[in-house]
Amino acid sequence: MEIIRAITDSNLFRPFLADADGDLSTWYNWLAALRIMYGLPVPESRRELVERCTGRTQFPSGGFNTALFLTGRRSGKSRIAAVIGAFEAALAGNESRLATGEQGIVAVISPTKRQSRIVRGYLRAVFDSTPMLKDVVTDETQQGFELNNGVLIEVLAGDWRTVRGHTLLAAIVDEAAFFGYDEESKVRSDTELIRAIKPSLATTGGKLIGISSPYARRGWCFNTYQRNFGKDSGKVLVWNCPSTTMNPTLPQSVVDEAMAEDLQAAKSEYLGEFRDDVCEFLPRPVIEALVAPGRVGLSALPDTTYTAFADLSGGRADDAALAIVHREQRTVIIDRVFRYRPPFNPYVVISQMADEIKAFGIKRVIGDNYAAEFVCAAFEGCGLRYTKCEKNKSVLYTELLPRMCSGEIELLDDPTLVNQLANLERRTRSGGKDIIDHAPGGHDDLANAVAGAAVMAATIRHRVGGLSIAKV
User: Fold this and answer.
1) 3-state secondary structure the chain
2) pLDDT in tens, 384-423
């Protein structure tokens, strides 16, 4: 069974993709992309589209084992990912590649639990769309479905460990360019994920398919684009185009509004372009080299001056965080970090922070500008003076950078802290001003608290022989 026949067959995938009248015309450009991927003939009417979206005129007759579809938001890519997953599991005949007693898996992997739930819902809808498909599902698991041919479909959220040691018949990586940005993800980057997946596909020759909006100019998605787009000899199919190319029903007004609001973001989200205003703040190996292995926290020492910095929130969605540090000569030591997950009562969290701060003999806490009057009153009620930091977090990160690069920071062995620091991005705004912040959907509460405490400790003034001296 060819995938195009399966999509156009009213007993298979057509009810899932077609509109209320059974029309598939809005999906014709996606069908052209799938024809190229699977080595099927392309109608002459779609030739110009294919050349424009791939930058090439020649394609291998047998199709591609690896494909990367870089299309914008609302282009239908998650629905197509579900169709590909269902086809590879139920109709492609991949189970014939398995040894006796071996179970094959079609893995659909996405960066976050939320995205995985979306893809799982689409997959369930694919199999529920017709009685013929519904009957092939023999068992439903927490992560996916088992089919009557013995193949297991698993929908995973940012976890490379599950694919290791298993036999994959296909792997569909949804929103591939965004792996590593969610701090709960077990995957540090799309490069790490693809490296883990490939050996599991080796014995079956299964397909590896990445589907994503473009993002930063780094990682597997960007490197694959650079090496293969527009090159007739490329081993990987790279299909790159705006959202409206793949989804002609998307109103142009939605794109225009996004362009007017944030041009760089909209070019990435809707025009299928990699962002040229985003770069890495600091390479992960540099950050990891500053970690004291096995050190999760230090106790208060006598005759030592400590600095505390708090990052507060309202307790509904964002974390609150606290960092306590001290300085030894030119090196800032991170002693303790505390993370408070929402939902929480801000007054309770501030009381808990105050207890930790007092344990280090600190009488003043520095913090960001969040609800300054409320926070100030709450800390004063706990016997501490709260001082609003005059530097915003971009400035704090900027001043932290040279100290990290010169090795003047000792970090705790805290994976969340390391991930938040590694996922910080430098974005250039109009006028050439740089902003350093977390990636979309990410968090930096712990990183911000550490940056604030470290920068404040490195520049605090103290008295020596009656003179006021700045530590720099």
Assistant:
1) CCHHHHHHCCCCCHHHHCCCCCCCHHHHHHHHHHHHHHCCCCCHHHHHHHHHHHCCCCCCCCCCCEEEEEECCCCCHHHHHHHHHHHHHHCCCHHHHCCCCCCEEEEEEECCHHHHHHHHHHHHHHHHCCHHHHCCEEEECCCEEEECCCCEEEEEECCCCCCCCCEEEEEEEECHHHCCCCCCCCCCCHHHHHHHHHHHHCCCCCEEEEEECCCCCCHHHHHHHHHHCCCCCCCCEEEEECHHHHCCCCCHHHHHHHHHHCHHHHHHHCCCCCCCCEEECCCHHHHHCCECCCCCCCCCCCCCCEEEEEECCCCCCCCEEEEEEEEECCEEEEEEEEEECCCCCHHHHHHHHHHHHHHCCCCEEEECCCCHHHHHHHHHHCCCEEEECCCCHHHHHHHHHHHHHCCCEEECCCHHHHHHHHCCEEEECHHHCEEEECCCCCCCHHHHHHHHHHHHHHHCEEEECCEEEECC
2) 999 999 888 889 999 999 999 999 999 999 999 998 998 8
Q: With beta carbons less than 8 A apart as the criterion, state whether 239 and 70 touch.
A: yes
Question: The whole model's pTM is what?
Answer: 0.73
Output the pLDDT for position 451. 95
From CA 155, how far away is CA 148, in angstroms rounded?
A: 18
Spatial neighbors of 323 by CB under 8 A, at least 6 apart, are 308, 309, 334, 336, 337, 338, 446, 449, 450, 452, 453, 454
Mean pLDDT confidence for 113-137: 88
Average the pLDDT over 172-183 and give the result.
82
For domain 3-276, is the CATH number 3.30.1240.10? no
- Which residue type occupies 247? N
Query: Where are the chain's structural domains?
Result: 3-276, 284-470
The predicted-structure confidence for 298-327, as pLDDT tens digits, reads as follows 999 999 999 999 998 877 778 899 999 999
Query: Nearest Cα to 406, choosing from 345, 467, 330?
Result: 330
pLDDT of residue 465 exceeding 60, the answer is no
CB 95 within 8 A of CB 167: no
Span 284-470: which CATH code?
3.30.420.240
Residues 6 or more apart in contact with residue 46 via CB below 8 angstroms: 28, 29, 32, 35
**Mean pLDDT value across residues 421-434:** 73
